[in-house]
User: Fold these one by one.
Assistant:
Number 1:
Amino acid sequence: MVRAFQFANQVAVTGVVDAVTATLLFSGTARGIDAARLEGVPGIAIGEFETWDEGQRTGNTDVVLLDGVRLTAWLAPHWVRMRDAAQADGVQLRFNSARSGFRTSQDQAELYRRYGSPRAVPPGWSNHQDGHAIDLVMTPEVKRWMSARAGEFGFVRPTYEDWHWEYRA
Ligand SMILES: [Zn+2]
């Protein structure tokens, strides 16, 4: 829960109630974790975040922490269905970094500062900010499995990036 709270408030995720976390906890302005609202959704609820598409703010979405990444609450069950189907076929689907699911504008700004264009796009323009996109570790087995079966679960690969998949059902 401490990790979820730190994620929700975009401070270092240590799992330890350090000075920064303690100050936030008692600030009265920290982002709360509304776990009850997301009952039944896989993962740990970490709060509501802004969604962006094509440089425009499009609204807010509930986000959960699951398998080491943040995912929009609506996407999480689709991910779980696909992950479990792959597992049943003996293939392990894994995210390729902690930012491989839903990204906040702050996440995207950091990536853009680090990698620049064309590897990263400016905040507001990533498909990871509207909550449809995931990035996977692409082993040959995962490549084969995703090519054959991802479509059944609503996931497509829209660009040349073979690790980047989007839910488009
Ligand atoms: Zn991606």
Number 2:
Amino acid sequence: MLYPPQILLPGPTPVPPSVNLAMQQAMSDHRGSVFTKVKDHVLVQLQELFDVGSDGRVAVIPTSGTGALEAAAQNFFLPGDKVIGVSTGTFGERFVDITEKMGVQVRHIRVGYGKAFDPEYILEVLKEEPNAKAILVTHNETSTGLLNPVVQLANALQFIADPPLLIVDSISGVPSVPLKVVGNHVDVIIAASQKGFMCPPGLGILAVSQRARNQVITDRPGRLFFNLQPYFDGQFPYTPAVSLWYGLEEALHLLAEEGEQPRLARHQLLSRMARAFGEASGMTPPVEEEFASPTVTALAAPKTMNPVEFRKQTARLGLQIAGAMGPWHHDYIRIGHVGAILPEQLFEGLATLAHLLPAGFDGLQAAWVTWHQAITIDEEVHS
Ligand SMILES: Cc1ncc(COP(=O)(O)O)c(C=O)c1O
């Protein structure tokens, strides 16, 4: 194939050329000075990005996002513990499932697909579960393209004496959508390399507050690899994924170069463009605008084609988009715009979709107007 297909997926996401290049560096001793310097540099930058404070820590584990969720459950809970698990889609359900499989008693607040959780309701449930050790939530629910009000929940928990740990799956959120340990009062933020971190899949990242660090279970039987304690001291009892660390170092450099607020604004613009396209082309987005995810947008499948056929046709035209998950599988598709995606690249992808839709060019025009307005506002601000 002359060119790889274009991907507008909510992970894996495009890897910038300089990140790919960084990963081609020669192998070196993972206990030697070259790698140690990279590792220390990456950890310091991640600690800043997640704002873990002087006594919080970040662990980078060679695993996928699911592995990082499992690592969180293993390090903070024992069989018989009680937690509150909130699900707003497939990934919230997965976190609950992992935790239950560990023998933990989960009070499952099942909000359902396409709806955000209500922080007030979670606080009400907490009154009924005074012994809950933690609240598990999803920041950006990738299966539906929905951003939950995690910051509001975290703020509300501040008014409770000795609140449970707030453990957040932000795998498709951070760093495209900022979330901070100290700044937002979150105890554990879980991320993965293949989304906003613009790297290939393979690294799970856990940012942990001082309070959560003090609650890590250090002597759990049957666990070595996922014990977070050595990670907090910058050590690992195995050979790390050296090349991915090189890539992550470069990706962190690119993230710092763009800056947090411009990055969020770019993702929000991508979301508005995808939604404008959907609304004008008959692929109405099912999630309310207030809770629209900046990184992934679900759209109704076209009336003329089922989602599987639609995705086959887009792939034939050189564009990979995602199917919807769980009960949404038969009715929706998802467009990922997380990580290294610019408005012009999204526009190119939407142009491919437009070929397949009776009102596709109305959608394209709506996306263009949304983009153009953002450029005009930006120019006015900077003139
Ligand atoms: C919110 C969320 N949680 C968990 C996962 C699972 O991550 P992985 O596929 O890397 O195991 C994903 C992956 O898309 C996700 O988006």
